[in-house]
Structures are given as structure tokens and as C-alpha cells.
Write a structure and sequence with these properties.
Layout lengths: L3 H18 L2 E11 L4 E11 L5 E10 L2 E3 L2 E19 L2 E16 L2 E18 L2 E11 L4 E13 L1
Antiparallel strand pairs: 1-2, 1-9, 2-3, 3-5, 4-5, 5-6, 6-7, 7-8, 8-9
Length: 159
């Protein structure tokens, strides 16, 4: 309980600060293409952007479509948590760079491998009111390293 109380206080303080700053939350979905897996997939993500600071915290899940490689089914998915710095935000356009943590899982037949690593990337977004189109390119450094390009739509709302 002694360790849980400070965590609760920190989370409450962060939530109160985010609320008072008028943060913007976004959720999105789109498509993904990867170099190592050599396939396409779907991306689902969410994040928060503070208007006072040019920082954004986001997370996403990418599920790549299964493929048959020499009669063996190959699957790949990944989770990412990123902290980004927004350096342009004008005329409904924003661009940012980010870095974060990555967890990638590859299944090849009965073999399953999960590797952890870091990723770095850049992205851009054009807003149409509450809806925005985005594109991101990142490189993941791990045993399952690859370039991943994602694009899709984000729904934005304030808290």
C-alpha cells in the first residue's frame, strides 16, 4: 500500500494538470507497411497532445496480415509507446519526431519470437476540424528491426 499511494498521487496530479491545460486526445486507425515482414497490416492507436507543451504521448498496435511462406503461416504484430516533439503546428498542419519502446512478436509456424527494442521516427498530420489525416515513418531497432510506414485517420477531442 505504501508503494501504491505515491503512484495514485502522481497519476491524479498528472490527470489534473492535463485537464487544466486543455489537452487534446486522439484515437486513430489506418494501414501499415513493413520492410522486414514484407507485408501490410492495420494500425490502431491513441494519444494525448498538450497545447502548452509541444509534446505528445502515444501508443499503437499494428497487426500485420498473415502470409503463407513456403506452406508455413507467418504472423507479425507489434506494440509501440512513443514520446514525440511537435516542431511545426500551423495552418492545420503539424509535423513531429518521436522515439519510444517497441515490442514485436513474430510467429512462424509453431515458433514464436518476441523481441523488445526502441523506435525513432517522424510524422505529419493535416487536420480537417475534429478529423485528421496522418502519416508516419519509423525505424525499429531490435532483433526484428524494420522500417514501418503508417497512414490513416485520427479523431481528436479535448478534455
Amino acid at each position: 500500500m505504501k508503494k501504491l499511494l505515491p503512484l495514485i498521487i502522481v497519476v491524479f496530479t498528472l490527470f489534473a494538470g492535463v485537464r487544466s491545460a486543455g489537452a487534446q486526445i486522439f484515437i486513430g486507425a489506418g494501414g501499415a507497411a513493413a520492410t522486414e515482414f514484407e507485408g501490410l497490416g492495420l494500425q490502431f492507436g491513441a494519444g494525448i497532445q498538450l497545447p502548452v507543451l509541444p509534446l505528445r504521448l502515444s501508443g499503437d498496435y499494428i497487426m500485420f496480415f498473415e502470409k503463407d511462406d513456403i506452406g508455413v503461416t507467418e504472423k507479425w504484430n507489434e506494440f509501440n509507446i512513443n514520446l514525440g516533439y511537435q516542431f511545426v503546428n500551423q495552418f492545420n498542419f503539424s509535423s513531429y519526431i518521436f522515439a519510444g519502446l517497441n515490442s514485436a512478436t513474430e510467429e512462424f509456424g509453431t515458433l514464436k519470437t518476441t523481441e523488445y527494442g526502441v523506435n525513432v521516427g517522424t510524422g505529419a498530420e493535416y487536420s480537417f476540424g475534429l478529423l485528421g489525416w496522418y502519416g508516419e515513418l519509423k525505424y525499429t531497432v531490435s532483433e526484428l528491426d524494420q522500417f514501418v510506414f503508417t497512414t490513416g485517420l485520427r479523431l481528436k477531442f479535448g478534455i
